[in-house]
Amino acid sequence: MALDIETFSSKTGPTCLFKAIGHPAAVDAAQALIAELAAAGPVAVFDPWDQLSTLAALYDLSGIAVDGVYVQDVLQVGRTVLGQAARPVSALGESGAGTLFVAAFDAGRLIDQMRALIGAERRVVTLDAMRIPDRLLTNPRNYLAPINFATNFAFFRDQDGHHTRLVSANYWGGYGARDVRIWARLFDGDGRVLGDFDQPLGGPNTGFVIDSREVRARLGVGDFTGQLFVHVVGAAGHDIVKYAVDTFASGPGGDAVLSCTHDANAWPSDYFAGLPAPADGETVVLWVQNSHPAPIPAGSLRLNRMGRDDDVALPEAVPGFATHRLDVARLLPDLAWPEQIEVTAGKHVVRPRYEIDTAAGRRRIAHVNVERTGLPPDPKLAELANLLGKGFILPGPVLPPARFETEVLPTPMARELAHLPITALVYGPDGTEVARHRFGRLPRDHAVALSLDDLVGPDALPAGGHVELVYDFAAGPEADGWLHAIFRYRDRESGHLAETSFGSHMFNMPVVYKSEPQSYAGRPPGLSTRLFLRAGHAGTDAFCTLIYAASQPWRETSETELQLTGSDGAVVARRQVAIPMGGSYHFRIRETFEAADVAAAGDNAYVLIRDGGCRLFGYHGLVSDDGGAFSLDHMFGF
């Protein structure tokens, strides 16, 4: 059963009403409000701005005796609300209820305007009774301003020697925000609150870390595997909380666990895809983390093999804000890599994480992606291929083949997509094409993973390079611009693996098509780069692969600057890099910057990657000092 909430609009982007109503700091007040209404006797309900349905989706309102539901929009008259046919608010005087519940925030002015209709004797209650504390609001005058709900969830664990570190920077300070801080709430696996804490973020662009070991000590709690709710107070410029989470282990066998994943996308979705079936000797666990106070009803979350309709339901309910460990083989025991799995999530969870445990005891963590609905193939992309060059490109790194095997698994990411016609192009760091592979017109239920061992050897790419997936219109016309793939890497010496996934964009071209190339500043094409590379923690170093993909001919080389940024947000050292168009650049922090500069940058340092004339795509990770374990995920910008 899907939640009746709006989380994302293709026209306006993310919405925040569900965040306000389901905010962890609002839950107690919401339950008190509902209990008050249940005790009040017959209640008339006025739903002027269609906010009641979200409240009803996230809380049980069945105990309220409703004496009429009223709406302002005459086009909404007659729709069923709380089991009753909605009436126009002009008929409110016909209700004999002594209490009026106005299901809206910031409704004071509207109530004043309608006071004669409401009546002087009738008691009025609004959603403002469940507002979160003002100290958590950036803009108290407009409660549903998106900046008030710069929030996100993070997978968070400190159990059996396994730890997590959430890493980011105060990029809001770069937009003029002052006194930025985080309010965080830690939930255990059952959804119980383990504790709250505040963390100031320092000045503009300062890096920050939330370490599970420090949180555990601060709150005085034992082992946990759950989720951390993060609310940024005082934000500006961005209402999206971006971060990287590193997962690692200490003690015996700790070198077998080093992985990372990035922010969870703060809006729940109906469907997710890109969940791999287990390879031989692997266990694939989907971490089902409820993002709302309402339980996930038994049978609501379902898995199916990609392209098949025989989905299997999770039989257990998942309590509000709880974390459920789901071994996918329990529901789909006959699947194996490179088969892949769709998740029907019903807007109950933000983008989930999955964790893979191997027979050798090595673990890695990654994320699935939002599967789009209402995105049919776009025939214009094939018709305009002569004007768009390569068009949509999905780039991924190729690590040096002598040491690493690279696999690519294309993943359908739209419900309407029946076929996927694509080609893989492999390039050296200088942008020279060294190999290509035509996948052909893959069916939705394909199980075709490409090992680059079959295309290139160590002599062709001694230092690695990158691979690009592009649409192959000679194989078929089906292109929707939402091309995704899983990139999987295996260290031939240690046996450690890492994987990541992402979607395609148009890169570095003077023309525009709809919203591509994407621009974070100004109108498209808006070609620039601002990427975050966190430094490693003790026993690790950070690495990065930057890819200069180009849909059409653009600048011959990039003019990229690597800015080593200290704990205080100041730039400690700079390095200039010229990446050939169509090529890539791989570096490690300790090899790129002087040891004295790295030491001066401090514990919460990071590298900001800037380019004013090219849009680069990047992947980052950590590598252990002994070289046996590594992590990899795509980067984020701000």
Q: Strands of the biggest beta sheet: in what spatial order? A: 7-4-3-8-9
Low-confidence stretches: none
The largest β sheet comes out as: 5 strands, parallel
Total strand segments: 44
Shape estimate = globular
Oligomeric state of the chains present here: single chain
What's the rounded overall pLDDT mean?
A: 94
Which value, in Å, is the CA radius of gyration?
26 Å
Secondary structure class reads: mainly beta
Q: Report the total helices.
A: 11
Helix fraction? 10-25%
β-strand amount: 35-45%
Overall tally of domains: 3
Compute the separation of the termini in Å. 35 Å
What this model shows, in words?
There is one protein chain. The protein has 638 residues and is mainly beta. The protein is built from eleven helices and 44 strands. The protein folds into three domains: 127 residues, Rossmann fold (3-Layer(aba) Sandwich); 218 residues; 259 residues, no CATH class. Helices cover 11% and strands 37% of the residues. The longest helix has 13 residues. The radius of gyration is 26 Å and the shape is globular. It starts with 7 loop residues before the first strand and ends with a strand.
Task: Furnish the topology, listing elements before pairings.
Layout (H helix, E strand, L loop, with lengths): L7 E2 L3 E2 L2 H6 L4 H13 L3 E4 L5 H7 L7 E6 L8 E2 L2 E2 L1 E2 L10 E4 L5 H6 L1 H4 L4 E4 L24 E8 L3 E8 L11 E7 L5 E8 L6 E5 H8 L4 E10 L10 E6 L8 E5 L8 E6 L5 E8 L12 E4 L6 E2 L9 E5 H4 L8 E5 L8 E6 L4 E5 L1 E2 L8 H5 L1 H4 L3 E7 L5 E8 L7 E9 L5 E11 L6 E2 L13 E7 L12 E8 L5 E7 L1 E2 L22 E6 L5 E8 L12 E6 L5 E7 L6 E5 H4 L2 H7 L4 E6 L5 E8 L8 E2 L1 E2 L1
Parallel strand pairs: 3-4, 3-8, 4-7, 8-9
Antiparallel strand pairs: 1-2, 5-6, 10-15, 11-14, 11-16, 12-13, 12-15, 16-17, 18-23, 18-26, 19-22, 19-24, 20-21, 20-23, 24-25, 27-32, 27-35, 28-31, 28-33, 29-30, 29-32, 33-34, 36-41, 36-44, 37-40, 37-42, 38-39, 38-41, 42-43
